[in-house]
Write a structure and sequence with these properties.
It is built from four helices and 36 strands. The chain is mainly beta. It is globular, with a radius of gyration of 28 Å.
Amino acid sequence: MLKLYNGSDMYPLQINETDWYIEHSYDGYDTLCFEIPDSHDMYPYLAEEARITDGDNLYAVKQIDDHGGYVNVTCSIDLDDWRERFWKSYRKTDSTLQQVFDDIKPQGWRLEGAGEITNHATIEASEGKGLENTTAEVILGRASEVYGVVFNFDALSKVVHVVDPSRYTPSGDYLTDELNLKALGYTGSTKDLVTRLYAYGKKDNDGNPVTIASVNDGKEYLDNNQYSDRVISAAWNDERYTSPESLLAAAREKLDALSYPVRSYECDVRNLGGNMFMYKVVTLIDRKRKIRTDHRVVAYKEYPKAHFYDVVTLSAVPPKIEGTVKSISAEVEQKISTAAQTATDAALEALQVITGAMGGHVKILMENGLPEAIEITHADGSTTLANKDGLTRGGNPYVYLIQQGTLDIDPESGGSVQLPNDWIGHEAEICVGVRNVLPQDETSVLHSLSLDSSWDAEHARAQILASCDMLSVGTGELIAPKNIEVNYCIIGR
């Protein structure tokens, strides 16, 4: 159960089990997200920077999005302690990870798991130059890069856990659509494919870098043709490496990742007995592509009280470890009246609707060398003009209407949304997407899904239809779900 801190008091935050989840990220910066109706008794106490706990960690509210009667809240791990100390310049040479941590840690925090990270390294921005205008959080991010580890934060106990993802070996778990996958999304890319890597390390006083030639048969490069026989060259320079042997080992590991397509799978995974976690290595069987490969969990969307809805992202090539926080810059806040901001947002969204639905072309109108207005010429020859005076079409003020929300759909009869009377007679576009499908039983898996919608301008009513079949794993029969929940957005003019 989530709990909300209000001063020294703490209140239970009663939320449906499927309306809150934790997004575990590869770099350890987890995010808590939840949704409540604006009628929730705790809503008045929700504010930016309010503290919330799930019992395992402490989060700070960072974003509140209130629309359509529902409030979406996004929270980050409470790491304000790590943003308090400031250094004009920071550089620490020939140190272990534990030594760096002890040098920058906020009061009361401790490091666990650093005992296995025994190598010495230097924390700096570049060769001989320290990190400038920095905080403990930024320094810790740099340490993540230098030592090749990630940090998991426990803000409740003030513990930073050191994780070396490379130490995780295949777990023996298999994922397949025949067994424990509800859905499988695939992304593959060879945009950054490299098969030949030239590797260079620290430069000497004459500017000559360390190479691997002396330990690699006189060649300054390595080849890896595990995926492609083509020669695709790239250079890599890292002045942390002072010996050919260490540079060769690092280059070989780097090329092993670069020489294979970046492939990731997003999977709706059944609970697996609650045995899914970040960095875990599983064997994925993709029958469609006839691929059977070990993949690492690189992102994990966890529903702690409803694991049936968990989603993991698997990748054979883990993300590059790099500091999460690159710099701190002052944010200049421009205060705009609520009315003006609403009008601006409406105009921009209306323009998106017009250009997407009506075609035509867009022209920027200039005055004294500066942009003054946007003119849209539609496929029918009519024009829409957006300038400082507002939005007009054919010389008449543009009527902009929008309504969005969530709707329960009966699989047989569908559902409808009744709009206010001021929508009568207006054209409207309906955007709809599935939010949740409730199965007849926990063994049912999604087999097919289709959505349709129509607009009744005379009665200002949107009709939304959803057709869905689910496959019962137990019987092998196609059955209808209990209920389909959709998100809709209706835009009228």
